Amino acid sequence: MTTHTKPGFRPANPNFSSGPCAKRPGWSVEALKNAALGRSHRAKIGKTKLEQAIELTREILQVPADYRIGIVPASDTGAVEMALWSLLGERGVDMVAWESFGSGWVTDVVKQLKLPDVRKLEAGYGELPDLAKIDFDRDVVFTWNGTTSGVRVPNGDFIPADRKGLTICDATSAAFAQRLDFEKLDVVTFSWQKVLGGEGAHGILILSPRAVARLESYKPAWPLPKIFRLTSGGKLIEGIFKGETINTPSMLCVEDYLDALHWAKSIGGLDALVARADANAAVLDGFVDRSSWLGHLAVQPETRSNTSVCLSFTDPDIAALDADGQAAFAKGLVSALDKEGVAYDIGSYRDAPPGLRIWCGATVETSDLEALLPWLEWAFAAQKASLKAAA
Where does 29-266 sit in CATH, by number? Predict the structure, then answer.
């Protein structure tokens, strides 16, 4: 039931942005007091911290021992681009996309790398492409969780163990909240500022032995800038995966990532992180089930994200508006919540259908989402009243 009366309580933390995401519960700048500031990242103290970040990433994500983990520049984007430019071209590639970031990788491969043998398997916002049509004799590029559509692959069962091509997976809004099937993945990328709420600008690149073998046996036809080079003399640069970063990292950001990793370990590791995200998503799911004006953008329940939950307007009066009208309505609703200080940055992504996108990752407290729900009702009622008054 909608109401014009403001709720009497508020979320303790109104940060529901889908990236950068909320800091872990209890975080303060004091958590960064031991950062190796003013020191070289190549000094023992700097390299030790980078190695710790890699080791804890492996432990918490349960990455196989024979997979390499490297800290790379330019966030998840940098990690994905390194993989695309270094690995693709040896065989045909299937590009699988159902939202803006996946579509961006399609553009890079088709228009920038200009590979001659590219198949595009695409779907609109809210749906997955037909995963059965993917040819795993070819290389395959896909996102595990569509950050801007709220649609994820339910699991890795669609990927065969005996594939001939490589699977390159952008997992930035899935890592630490969803179970990644590493045995089915040859390249996994993510960024610190998503599920663990770390500071931005750095990415993680995880390579399977099959990906390493490709790097050491295949040389792309195009030149690679230094920032993308993973091999030297036909051999993997092992130092990258032991804390010897390609360029200078921010040791302040590294300290913040270490703090988030230690928090994750302290609450029970991956199991606890997944459980927190699932519990958060369940709060919104129940709200949508009861709502007369809001629905999931993701069509199939098994494909709905537990991190970047995307919602669309189902109220008949709002749904009847054209795209500009719906966008204006959503903007007004989001702005009202922002001004009240109860929810920041929850508008849908600029390329997505008008609606809401509410982050439910593990650093968000379930109690804050529960406190947000009556405010969503209030903001909707207020915006709809304004719409009727203007008509």
Answer: 3.40.640.10
